[in-house]
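Q: Here's a chain of 822 amino acids. Please give me its 3D structure as tokens.
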Amino acid sequence: MSVDFVGSAVGTAFGELFALVKEVVQTIAVFQEQLKKIESTLDSIYPIMRDIDEFNRRMDRKDLGKIRALINDGKDMVKKCLKIKKFNLYERYKYSKKLTELDATLFREFQLSVPLTTARNTMEILTVLTDFREEVRMHHSGLANDGAIQSGLGASGNLAVPEAPDFIVGSEVEASLRKLKGRLLEEGVSVIVVTAPGGCGKTTLVAKLCHDLDIEGKFHNNIMFIRVSKKLNLTDIVQKMIQHKNFLVPIIETEDFAVQYLQQLLEKIGQNPVLLVLDDVWTESKSFLDKFVFKKIKDYKIVVTSRYEFPDVDFVHHLNPLNKGEALQLLHRSVTITDRSMSVPDDLLEQVVNRCKGLPLALTVVAKSLRGKDPSFWETKLLDWSERRSLLRSDSDVLDCLRKSLDDLDGEIKECFLDLSLFPEDRKIPATALIDMWVELYKLDFSGVRAIADLNKLVYRNLADLIVTGPKDSNKDDDKCYSSYYAMQHDLLREMAILECNKGEVEERERLILDLTGNSFPDWWSEQKQPTLNARLVSISTDKTFSRPWPNLQLPKVEALVLNFETNIRTKTYVLLEFIEKADKLKLLIVTNYSFSPAELRNFHVIGSNLKRMRLERITVPFLSMGQLRLPCLQKISFFMCNISQASTSDDAKISDAILGLVELHIDYCNDLMALPDDICEIKPLKKLSITNCHNLSALPEQIGQLVSLEVVRLNSCTNLSQVPDSIRTLQELISLNISDCLSLSTLPDQIGQLVNLKSMNMRGCLRLSKLPRSIMRLRNLRKVDCDEEKEGLWAPLKSSLNSLKIIASEEEEANLNWLND
């Protein structure tokens, strides 16, 4: 047996004693009997000592002091035994007794110390857990719901500070950073407002401020960045703040209760400095801002960005547009393709700068539209600006400037840009939703590769931002699922897109965007007026105060319908519009609940039989009872943070009968899912099965091998999944298998080598998976394996026979336990 203790006092000494005893036993016969007993004792306690020593090393502990002293004494004693001469009978007798006593003492001390240490550690763990329960309970006496917990995980709940660019132009920006930083580091000032017109870079400035080393050093993980926008929801924001700090999230019935929870949260975490950023606060939200101010909480700072001034706050900072020199510098930087000098005359550059009013957003967007173009193109653009001056509203110059940047977009890219306006302001837009839309409307490839390329073109032109969540390498998306991709759009750009969409008579618009507040409908849409509209894309958004029945609507040409809503604490339901039943051309339905808790979807039966793609987020919908529907054309269905495991009400209703033509099934963060129904395996066209972050999923159907068309299987972060069914070996079309972060998975199917077309496999984070089946040697088409560094050796035999195999081994990342919030 080898001794592999490394680096700690007990472990190193133990290993040295063990090796020394073995050496002396083999070379000196005089003390052989006593040393063999010691060797036996050390051999029996070695595995336990190794584990204890490793845990102590991780916890920076120095337990088992007596045993450490005994081991050191034992080393000295054995070394002395080596020096005793054969004829020195007295010394031989004396050390023989000492070795016998050492053996007995080691055994006795081990039996005594280890149970006591274990008991102490157990009590410590129980104490920590008790304190943890108390800390996360967030109990409020008197609440009727008794602090019931709801899940609310996902991209929309993330309050982390957004990334800031490394390079920011402008001496004023640097001065602003210094001034704001000084205010945050000093005592006293609690509310700071950064005000400027839209497009001046307020959000970028504050993001840069939050990433300053001194600011991070003071506030640490108590920095929360909240996008407020025009439609604010105090209860939702407070719930996200509670979740962000890893407390259990209560149901909050009223705004008054929300304020109480907010104060309790801030008092809880306010023992350390707290920085709260409220981004894009509108002037009518002043009363909302007041609810975040608690003067008694020490070192609690609020930074507000707004187009408007709030004169009665502690400190207002005006961020001015760039001066002419700074604007020229930014334009040069944004319009330059390479290091070569531009051929555009200085007077044209100055005219563009003057037109953009020194606004960074306008400068970067316009620069990208002119990038690489001939000077004559610049002159034509400037003539267009001067001839078609828009007078739309207070930000008209900016909007007019931005709108001209759309002129040189080709048809498809411009349409994609306008489609972003179908989603609510200041929300992350799942790239998968955009892929579904663009594949159906613009006949792009089914995989979504071209759709992602179009999104990247918008990002390149500064018309959208791309956010990639998840692990560092998640943006590779070899299996083309793109579940970690999100798009965001500046509110001015969204406003510009909506203005573009709203041209002409409402009956003839290509896109119909309805943003309803309360129970107010536009004049043209009421019970008395039910016009026929020719819109191809429709977006309807409602807030939590909406409660009226839907008036009828005639949309015979609609192909994509996006429904965005929030529910209040009492209803928790959303009713699909009746007109959907008559929308014969409807191909895509996206239903997104932006409330913190899932909402029940009613009128599910109105969904038409021609629907091809459907995406549901934060919805309670009986997926396991969908057998009562008939959706023969449905090719893709996605559930994100939904409650889907309601039991079927009919034994005869099979899901496979409802969605017999399904090609893709995506289920993400659906924690009530414990098992898939067996009849899923009867959907023969299914090519992509993605079940991720479903932490209660414990088993897959044994008949999964019947899904003979499967090309992609994604099971990452299904932490309770203990095995993959053996029948998976029959999936001859399987190309990609992802089992990353399946923490309970300890084995792979014995005959996994029969997956003859498998090209990529991700097993990163499979901590219990310690060996591979022998059949793995038969994966002749395997080209790529992602694994932890310590698992790389498992693949060595295969790599020797497959020259094209690429093993990407990385150090084990710190576990992301955000899902525990659920």
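Q: Can you summarize the key feature?
A: The mean pLDDT is 78.
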